[in-house]
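step: validate -> pass
step: tokenize input -> pass
step: predict -> running
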Amino acid sequence: MKHFINKILYTFSLYLPIILLATTTPEEISQTTGNSHIKNLAIFYTIQGKIEDKYNIFVEKKLKSIGFNLTDPHKRVNDQYKTKWGSSVLDVLSFMPVVNDSVVLPLLNIDPRIAGFSPFNMLIYKKLDENMTHVGHLLPQTMLNILEIHNEEVRKKFSAPFQKLDETISKNLGGKVSYMPYTKLPKQTMIHFEYTFDTPDNMEDFIDEFQNKFELAFINKGYLIAGYHNFMEATDDAEEILADYDAFWTYSLCHLEFSYNMFDTMKARPEAGLFAPCTMYMYIKKGSNKVVVGMFRLHNWSDALNITNPEQLKLVEKLDREIPEILTHFGMKAGKNINPLTMPQNKITTEKVTQNEVPKITSTTNHTTAIETNTSEEENVLEIILPTVPTPPKVIKVIGGSTNT
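step: predict -> pass
step: emit ->
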């Protein structure tokens, strides 16, 4: 009997680590090494050969069947780099933003900051000098940490669908699974701004005019409006779910100089496309006269990915300085990144924004014509058309290579 009990205990001891890991999240697994400062940033699938066509069909059709909808896909961004700058080290680089609206919409009523990664990018890239394709996405815990969301209900419900997402990727694409670690995020991960306006007679007209002015403010500074997602139209019952909002939408921002020098060129970091394009959310609470704006800072890229190249860091500094400057010039005021739904609501004010605070509208625009595009109805692909440049700029020299996943 004693021998039998010892045998059971021995067998249990062999399987205990497997049992523990089976109930551990991907973020926590990396901490079993003993370094409590190391967490997992993203999950990658490394697949033999070029699977671009298979991947496009997978994201467009298969992910939709499990609730993740493709918003504004940007396929083969590397072709645009080659057209504009004359060279590319990439065979494939595509940004495929997806969002699970059925999960996210109710969470916006608990903490609207969850829109900061709604959508998030399903990245695919392959270099010309390798015969492997890399597919990956940020882990939900990483997104929540950057957004500084600590509400357990939001964290649990937002993270839950990712298990099915990764199971579906593994089943349909296969490949070697690996986790990309990180040791730190910047002290300030987010920016938060508010824009006060006179209560309009017609809210829809105000929103249209505001969006036109806002988009032009960024376009005139060299940014691209690379995507637009209107939560109020995301599902048939979206307006009912978001009854406490007059409006709620996100923009996807892109800056080509930053993009090319970060993702392409020799020794660049295509895996940084995990963060691209940058999602900026905006909403107006019902009965309020404020547009609330939030977005994660570019320093999240450089800190999480341990980017040390001086020229790339200069671009990070430039965008993190320039974006708040554009918002401030537009007439917005900076604030702290807190969940406003947990704070006392201010009464509507009639504070006016002076004319010189808001850029003049030089031409009318909309979300699909803010940049010159070609749209394929069959694939629902938004392709950025870039002007050619006679002389390619000097390629940035990057210290160190890319992270293999």
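step: describe -> Residues 26-384 form one domain.
step: cleanup -> pass
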